[in-house]
Target: homoserine dehydrogenase
Amino acid sequence: MTSREQTMKNIPLLLIGCGGVGRQLLQHIVSCRSIHAKQKLHLRVVGICDSKTLLVPLDVFTVELDDAFLLEVCQAKLKGSSLLTLSNSGQHKVFLNPESMGKIIDIAALLARSTGLTVIDCSASSDTTGVLTRVVELDCCVVMANKKPLSSSMEDYEKLLACPRRIRHESTVGAGLPVIASLNRMLSSGDLVHRIVGSLSGTLGFVMSEVEDGKPFSQVVRSAKNLGYTEPGLVNCSPAAVYLINRFLVFLVEQVQLDPRDDLSGMDVARKALILARLLGRRIVLNNIKVESLYPEEMGPSTMSIASFLENGLPLLDKGIQERVEKASSNGNVLRYVCLIDDLRCEVGIQELPKNTPLGRLRGSDNVLEISSRCYNQQPLVIQGAGAGNDTTAAGVLADVFDVQDLFH
Amino acid sequence: MTSREQTMKNIPLLLIGCGGVGRQLLQHIVSCRSIHAKQKLHLRVVGICDSKTLLVPLDVFTVELDDAFLLEVCQAKLKGSSLLTLSNSGQHKVFLNPESMGKIIDIAALLARSTGLTVIDCSASSDTTGVLTRVVELDCCVVMANKKPLSSSMEDYEKLLACPRRIRHESTVGAGLPVIASLNRMLSSGDLVHRIVGSLSGTLGFVMSEVEDGKPFSQVVRSAKNLGYTEPGLVNCSPAAVYLINRFLVFLVEQVQLDPRDDLSGMDVARKALILARLLGRRIVLNNIKVESLYPEEMGPSTMSIASFLENGLPLLDKGIQERVEKASSNGNVLRYVCLIDDLRCEVGIQELPKNTPLGRLRGSDNVLEISSRCYNQQPLVIQGAGAGNDTTAAGVLADVFDVQDLFH
Model:
């Protein structure tokens, strides 16, 4: 414990992945300087890594990547450039993949004993698992927005969680919504969680509430993608801007081949369900989760192109969904695509739920989680709000970084 | 930072106030032993204090109050006995009030330098402010369910919060609901909170949703008190048990003089609003908050007995409330008794709110908080669930105790 006259804590950070969320995180770190200074905390960025390149200051003990450079990184990544384009100034050491991963471990080994280090994974890659595991073994902290390492084998999971207080991963479920932090609080106070039901995909939440109004499934899926519903930032724009962005997104779907099946397969929700189930102590893997895909196997990416799926496949699914919606409605219920974890089940798929519950009333792209426990037994604990977007996700990561600093002195 | 082979942390705790919440906390501590052991944590109770007596082990460095004794304390407090009745075994040092408060400071001074100490305030007294302030100055941690010290003068507040990470007080607002923890996460990640609206009284939440159905205010207030709605545990019982408990509570209201005006005055909600507003950086005191009382001054406790208020006063308020309910309803709205904090206001009272929002849909005694911020701008972040009850409140306290242990080594 520090003395009453608190000295400034200098916490070194190393960021893996500086696309959308990572880039936003760098901006948050810079703009939070004064807030953190009041709490006697300085976040010292000593490494940034994208899929190709790791940049570190010439001496990780004494020098940091300064705010001007962090903002330069943000600009470059916003334009879609690689970190490699910023590596020629002579101000940094540059390591290329695959050497970069080993170098991160070296830095962790160097800094752990003196100042500690927090490694942040904002990538979407499963390749980081090995590095993160080593970093934890070296007594450093890890903060993750990346779901992959936490949803791989139980062996890797248990290595990562060997010192649970050193790992934080709020933004792997529901972006910055305080889901993991709240569940951890319940578990550490001995509350017994009986059941978690959650709508954890903005896209599927939007789709299920729209088909409830009688719109055809195929049409709703197309507008969900076009609206960029997984990026709530767009909703802020003027109608004209939304129109232009929509046109651009349609263009993107065609050109860059955004595949709506990524969401419709349910696999992203399944990873979140796995993370929640493991938090509750379940020793399971992704394959143990019953996942309902919203398209049949014969319409999968290996047999049908995106264009063909959108044009020929998707409309064939309308009737089936419509019938299910009507059947649910005749029972006074609605359909929601949820993860459902209780003592017997860990499932992901469409469930018929009462209209008159937070999940049943859900409209649009918000995430909702209902947690039933010994303490919340009559009515569940409900956490609801935007569950996607770089800003919110990066804020969740930064809150985790701030929380783990209590472990450093 | 501890080495990879984590050693068991022995965190000494001292509990002030062992009535309802404090007693439940002792039970939780005992029943969470195995959960905490897995996290390499042992909570070592080195002092328990009620309004009259402080009991400590013969040597606070090496001995703790063991689980058998903690459960004995729970039994005694459940029966309404004082700690004084347990002080004759010769196993403990006994200090009587007012000596006890000074002794707590002595213990904090002794333990702070070697092992650290967390002092927990589950009392409902403003007398603890001085002790808690000293304890913080001595580098110990403080966890509070007690609202009073946090809602007194700005000077005391700033002394208490001098090292913000060492003070946790989740259970001062919405019992164990993750309100304070979530707000702190938002603030530390630089999210800008624009507006908080919350129904933070189980009793007033129940009252406002019942009058919405056309029931007379006076009748609803009586049944709220009789149903013991501020103690959601009762809702678990069989109808027969509820009937008996209701009869008992009616008896209690008459005998022990539970005063419904404690809730109706809004002062309890005002303290919670003050705690939230101060968290957002407002330098205000209780008197700066505009508080709407649901009874006029001439029906206050100084001029009207409880019996007379229930029989003669309360029914006179029915018509006014009914008219307001009808007016709101004709606008398509409902009335809720809320705290409202935004850039201009910090108010507590009845607000007309849209039906189709989490607050507008609220039924029964749950608490609901809607937080609007930069990250949650289209739709608010919503946290909803039981906001009262010893079990939930004590769970919130224990989660705080668990969280602050990261500061100790």
